[in-house]
Write a structure and sequence with these properties.
single chain; about 55 residues; about 0% strand
């Protein structure tokens, strides 16, 4: 019985690690998207197009 509970706790720990890794990847993708949007806004501003910021 205790070996079953240990494996459950091990699984929970693995899932928590995976969730943390996914959150890290999401944060990376969010920063990349913000950078891409900022570059697009700068490009549009250089062309003379009025741009309202999508980031904020």
């Amino acid at each position: 019985m205790s070996s079953d509970s240990e494996t459950i706790y091990d699984r929970i720990a693995k899932l928590e690690d995976e969730v943390a890794a996914l959150r890290s990847e999401i944060d990376f993708l969010k920063r990349a998207l913000r950078n891409e949007l900022a570059r697009h806004e700068v490009k549009m501003a250089k062309k003379g197009t009025e741009v309202s910021s999508l980031i904020d």
